[in-house]
Amino acid sequence: MTDTDTDIAYVVDVSPGSGTLPPRAWPPASDATRLSLNGSWRFRLSPYADADTAFTAEGYDASAWDTLRVPGHWVLQGQGRHGSPAYTNTPYPFPVDPPFVPTENPTGDHLHTFDLPAHWPAGGEAVLRFDGVESCARVWLNGAELGEFKGSRLPHEFAVTGQLRPRGNVLAVRVHQWSSGSYLEDQDQWWLPGIFRDVTLLHRPEGAVRDHFVHASYDHVRGTGTLRVDSEPAGRVLVPELGIDVASGETATVPVEPWSAEQPRLYEGELVTDGERVRLRVGFRTVRVEDGLIKANGRPLLFRGVNRHEFHPETGRTLDLATMREDVLLMKRHNINAVRTSHYPPHPAFLDLCDELGLWVVDECDLETHGFHAVGWRGNPVADPRWTPALLDRAARMVERDKNHPSVVVWSLGNECGTGEGLSAMAAWIRERDPSRPLHYEGDRSCKDTDFYSRMYADHAEVEAIGRGEEAALDDPESDARRRAMPFVQCEYAHAMGNGPGGLAEYQELFEKYPRLQGGFVWEWIDHGLAHPEFGYAYGGDFGEELHDGNFVCDGLLFPDRTPSPGLTAFKSVVQPVRMDGDGREGVVRIRNLYDVSDLSHLEFAWAYEKDGATVREGVLDVPAVGPGGSVELALPEPPRRDPDAETQWTLRARLAKDTAWAERGHVVAWAQLPVEGGMQPPAPGGSAPVRAGGRIALGCGEFDARTGALLAVGGLPVTGFGCDVWRAPTDNDNGMPWVAGSSLAAKWRALGLDRMQHRVEAVEPRADSLVVRTRVAPAASDLALRVTYHWISNGIRLALRMDVEPEGAWQVPLPRLGVRLGLPAAYDRVTWFGAGPGESYPDTGAGAMLGIWSATVPELQTPYVRPQENGARSGTRWAELTDGVRPLLVDGGTFAFTARPWSTRELDAAAHRTDLVAGDTVWLHLDARQHGIGSASCGPGVLPDHRLRPGQEQFRVQFSVRDSAAPRRPA
Ligand code: IPT
């Protein structure tokens, strides 16, 4: 071993570090002085861990170094000069050889010079705090080494009393991308080294609070809260609003309003010691598992949750306060009541926001060893006692930091670590330190270290079996019995990768039906697409990584820029805490309150009576303050005169009656539509006789190719590429799970050739007053086919199509879609339609889409999935009008899904990034009788049987007409 080897031995040492202070509560607002050391630092990157340490000496001249923003990841700064991000899901991007890491270990040296502010107090002590450094840091102050640590998303503090001077302090931090700690941080995200959270210097006055623990429980029978604040050193605990003034360690019990995610009642208080006044924000709540249920304040919980990684497209895991707040506000506005901090404790300010705005938090430890799966879990750190101190250190740093947050109701040991004694040791330590919160861990089916049964991506049938308590036995009778007595939560489900997830509503029905099923957490909150000059948003492989997992990192309910995806809009509707159903014809609505604690008095219920999509009357319903779990049946107002020719419906909206901390008055919490009459489709117009001229056949306002029978024009508007279409650019869910053989439906589709169907024209048959075109549509090298017959009729103004489809042969796979496709001039770039909208919807998605009249430009109809794929279908469409502003094309005469895009399906299919898609001279219009559902097979179950498009006999009708824009929309 050389000298340098000894010097860097700490990098691969499995111990958590040395020189740091014991963990303690996140320093809340207090009157003690603090100095943020965030800002512009000097930075140098070396390819190896043993670069010279001369920079740590006093007087080192770093003026030639780069500058870097701290907090930040060096790979996301410096325009590529500092290496690149890399993405893997489960595989370690280095050999599985614990605790060793590659010799090529990017090492970032950071230097920062600072003065103490004039008001920095004399005396007392000083602490240097790092809130997050990935993956390992060694620290020097004014030339003296302080120590080193690992545990990227956990705080570390050093005592620096006596080492500070008024001016010219030099802080030197060496950060290694890889360390033994990397084996514990294999969390399916970008590998992003750096000092990515705040660095702070804290003054600690004599007698300041070293640590404090707020115990605030709620007795729902008596309506009282009990507060005890343990403090070191002792002090006084004041909560003026409650008249509490007790010594630390003493208990006060008083009547209070409890804290809950729905009503996050916080009481302002203070802990006063000889040296410091610390702000307390006390939320009284008791969470426990009893009678086989997770209960908060005596009531069973239903988690409408999401998994949240910390992510920003420009700054990676460095998040500013505004972004954290935006996350919480977006969650609240989308009816989300819970968040799992997958898979590490978040920036502590995020938890303050959860306390304040109300979210149930599953706080997860910074721990995942998933990559050991690839080697049969050999050498898994959680099963190797040498790593137990590191695991305990991580557990303690999470619990101590976050223990005073009322929002944190569950501790999670980590994610995907297999099983092992290290986890049991963590659980035992946490139970001892904080028995007030239930424990979660998904990866051990024996559930020996957890308080409830948790799974990920279990399909609907299995979830139902669990709900009934009829799940299969798994291991020893003792574990089986323990698990069966436990409540159940899906810690991950409904993988939100690309278009989807499908099947949300069916999960929610189960969660609401079986008490044992206490909800779940959608995977995941936001796409981790990194802003990229060439690709728009980059995913795995875009930085030239040798090993990567592609766009599996883009699987969130938000796009990278935090625009809600259709999946989030759907989730909001599926989990809405108020349900309105009933019989529109009878004019009766049943309103159910699904809140945990709130009655309905904070909502205003608006009704609208709509005819063919237009509101003809509206008003506000008088709804009593029904309590949680209750329901009421109400009569809707007397509808205006019935109009059997029109399509009529009630639209009901439950809106906030007053401003809240997270949304303004009028914000729609829940809605429903109750149909009244079905309306009538315009009858098929007949009369015109086909006329052959040149290579064309004219039929009323339609023109056709005499050889192929393809539509060439309608009302003089040229049409290209007309024909039956079954292909869609596969979604991520169609592509399935790369690691599960046979899970890709898209691979089956491509093997069969559904992306390259050939159309053989069997007959073009002019009849007395119609044109019939018979075709056989089939892929090369197969004898499977669809017999497709187009029946056309026209009265000179409208052109009607009936397409009959008859499958031939033994089809084993569902079709992607079934409908017609046609190309229009690019100027046809605006659409108004009566159907579901404004967003996209597929058979098993789009619960957020309402029936109404909507307008959008063709670019606006595109859903910007980071990896391009099928998107943008508007289903349940009664009519759609595309226009160039002069001669609108109306499509009606049936109920269909339409999709309009400025590029073809082939181009969409070939694109890897949004920037590959360039609008051409054609708007491609798809009119589908049906689409195959979406499912969530990118990680989870496929499309449920009801939503599969099985090839079968099909009859599809639509009509086309072109008018001058001045003429009425619906011609004769
Ligand atoms: C599961 C992981 O817990 C999560 O981090 C993420 O990778 C998710 O899947 C998929 O995006 S693990 C999976 C193999 C079931």
TrEMBL record:
<dbReference type="Pfam" id="PF02929">
    <property type="entry name" value="Bgal_small_N"/>
</dbReference>
<dbReference type="GO" id="GO:0009341">
    <property type="term" value="C:beta-galactosidase complex"/>
</dbReference>
<protein>
    <recommendedName>
        <fullName>Beta-galactosidase</fullName>
        <ecNumber>3.2.1.23</ecNumber>
    </recommendedName>
</protein>
<keyword id="KW-0326">Glycosidase</keyword>
<dbReference type="InterPro" id="IPR004199">
    <property type="entry name" value="B-gal_small/dom_5"/>
</dbReference>
<dbReference type="InterPro" id="IPR023230">
    <property type="entry name" value="Glyco_hydro_2_CS"/>
</dbReference>
<dbReference type="InterPro" id="IPR008979">
    <property type="entry name" value="Galactose-bd-like_sf"/>
</dbReference>
<dbReference type="InterPro" id="IPR006103">
    <property type="entry name" value="Glyco_hydro_2_cat"/>
</dbReference>
<dbReference type="InterPro" id="IPR023232">
    <property type="entry name" value="Glyco_hydro_2_AS"/>
</dbReference>
<dbReference type="Pfam" id="PF16353">
    <property type="entry name" value="LacZ_4"/>
</dbReference>
<dbReference type="GO" id="GO:0005990">
    <property type="term" value="P:lactose catabolic process"/>
</dbReference>
<comment type="similarity">
    <text>Belongs to the glycosyl hydrolase 2 family.</text>
</comment>
<dbReference type="InterPro" id="IPR017853">
    <property type="entry name" value="GH"/>
</dbReference>
<dbReference type="InterPro" id="IPR006101">
    <property type="entry name" value="Glyco_hydro_2"/>
</dbReference>
<keyword id="KW-0378">Hydrolase</keyword>
<dbReference type="InterPro" id="IPR013783">
    <property type="entry name" value="Ig-like_fold"/>
</dbReference>
<dbReference type="GO" id="GO:0030246">
    <property type="term" value="F:carbohydrate binding"/>
</dbReference>
<dbReference type="InterPro" id="IPR032312">
    <property type="entry name" value="LacZ_4"/>
</dbReference>
<dbReference type="InterPro" id="IPR011013">
    <property type="entry name" value="Gal_mutarotase_sf_dom"/>
</dbReference>
<dbReference type="Pfam" id="PF02837">
    <property type="entry name" value="Glyco_hydro_2_N"/>
</dbReference>
<dbReference type="Pfam" id="PF02836">
    <property type="entry name" value="Glyco_hydro_2_C"/>
</dbReference>
<dbReference type="InterPro" id="IPR036156">
    <property type="entry name" value="Beta-gal/glucu_dom_sf"/>
</dbReference>
<dbReference type="InterPro" id="IPR014718">
    <property type="entry name" value="GH-type_carb-bd"/>
</dbReference>
<feature type="domain" description="Beta galactosidase small chain/">
    <location>
        <begin position="696"/>
        <end position="961"/>
    </location>
</feature>
<dbReference type="GO" id="GO:0004565">
    <property type="term" value="F:beta-galactosidase activity"/>
</dbReference>
<dbReference type="InterPro" id="IPR050347">
    <property type="entry name" value="Bact_Beta-galactosidase"/>
</dbReference>
<dbReference type="InterPro" id="IPR006104">
    <property type="entry name" value="Glyco_hydro_2_N"/>
</dbReference>
